[in-house]
Amino acid sequence: MYVLLFPLAVGQSYAQPTTTITGRVTDETGSGIPGVTVLLKGSATGTATRPDGSCSVQPRRR
Protein backbone atom coordinates (compact mmCIF):
# COMPACT_ATOMS: atom_id res chain seq x y z
CA MET A 1 0.00 0.00 0.00
CA TYR A 2 2.78 2.44 0.85
CA VAL A 3 4.48 1.86 -2.53
CA LEU A 4 1.28 2.68 -4.42
CA LEU A 5 0.70 5.98 -2.60
CA PHE A 6 4.24 7.31 -3.00
CA PRO A 7 4.07 7.92 -6.79
CA LEU A 8 0.82 9.87 -6.35
CA ALA A 9 2.40 12.17 -3.76
CA VAL A 10 5.44 12.79 -5.97
CA GLY A 11 3.25 13.51 -9.02
CA GLN A 12 1.31 16.19 -7.17
CA SER A 13 4.47 18.02 -6.12
CA TYR A 14 5.36 18.62 -9.77
CA ALA A 15 1.93 19.92 -10.81
CA GLN A 16 2.07 23.41 -12.30
CA PRO A 17 -0.72 25.94 -11.91
CA THR A 18 -2.54 26.72 -15.15
CA THR A 19 -2.44 30.27 -16.45
CA THR A 20 -5.43 31.58 -18.37
CA ILE A 21 -5.32 34.88 -20.24
CA THR A 22 -8.72 36.49 -20.78
CA GLY A 23 -9.85 39.56 -22.66
CA ARG A 24 -12.46 41.18 -24.85
CA VAL A 25 -12.19 42.61 -28.37
CA THR A 26 -14.38 45.68 -28.90
CA ASP A 27 -15.06 48.25 -31.57
CA GLU A 28 -14.89 52.03 -31.04
CA THR A 29 -18.35 52.04 -29.45
CA GLY A 30 -17.45 49.33 -26.91
CA SER A 31 -19.48 46.56 -28.56
CA GLY A 32 -17.88 43.09 -28.59
CA ILE A 33 -16.68 41.76 -31.94
CA PRO A 34 -17.34 38.03 -32.50
CA GLY A 35 -15.06 35.70 -34.50
CA VAL A 36 -11.82 37.68 -34.17
CA THR A 37 -8.67 35.53 -34.12
CA VAL A 38 -6.51 36.33 -31.10
CA LEU A 39 -2.91 35.00 -31.06
CA LEU A 40 -0.33 35.11 -28.30
CA LYS A 41 2.62 37.19 -29.49
CA GLY A 42 5.53 35.07 -30.66
CA SER A 43 3.55 31.81 -30.80
CA ALA A 44 0.97 29.91 -32.79
CA THR A 45 -1.30 29.58 -29.74
CA GLY A 46 -4.60 31.38 -30.15
CA THR A 47 -8.37 31.36 -30.07
CA ALA A 48 -11.39 33.09 -31.60
CA THR A 49 -13.64 35.52 -29.75
CA ARG A 50 -17.11 34.46 -28.62
CA PRO A 51 -20.30 36.23 -29.77
CA ASP A 52 -19.83 38.89 -27.05
CA GLY A 53 -16.20 39.53 -28.07
CA SER A 54 -14.69 37.78 -25.05
CA CYS A 55 -11.93 35.20 -25.27
CA SER A 56 -9.57 33.15 -23.13
CA VAL A 57 -6.45 31.18 -23.95
CA GLN A 58 -4.02 29.04 -22.00
CA PRO A 59 -0.40 29.49 -23.07
CA ARG A 60 1.61 26.33 -23.62
CA ARG A 61 4.41 25.64 -21.17
CA ARG A 62 7.89 25.31 -22.61
Question: What spatial form do the alpha-carbon principal axes imply?
Answer: elongated
Radius of gyration: 19 Å
Unreliable spans: 1-13
Amino- and carboxy-terminal Cα gap: 35 Å
How much of the polypeptide forms β-strand, as a percent range?
Answer: 15-25%
Major sheet characteristics: 2 strands, antiparallel
Number of separate helices: 1
Derived structural class:
alpha+beta
Mean pLDDT: 80
Widest sheet, order of strands: 1-4
Order of helices and strands: HEEEE
Helical proportion? 10-25%
For the secondary structure, the number of strands is 4
Region (Disordered): 43-62
Protein name: Carboxypeptidase regulatory-like domain-containing protein
Can you walk through the features of this model?
There is one protein chain. The chain is an alpha+beta fold. The protein has a domain at 17-40 and 47-62. The protein is built from 1 helix and 4 strands; from the N terminus they run αββββ. It has one helix at residues 2-13, and strands spanning 21-24, 37-39, 46-48, 54-57. The longest helix has 12 residues, at 2-13. It is elongated. The relative contact order is 0.24. Residues 1-13 have low confidence and may be disordered.
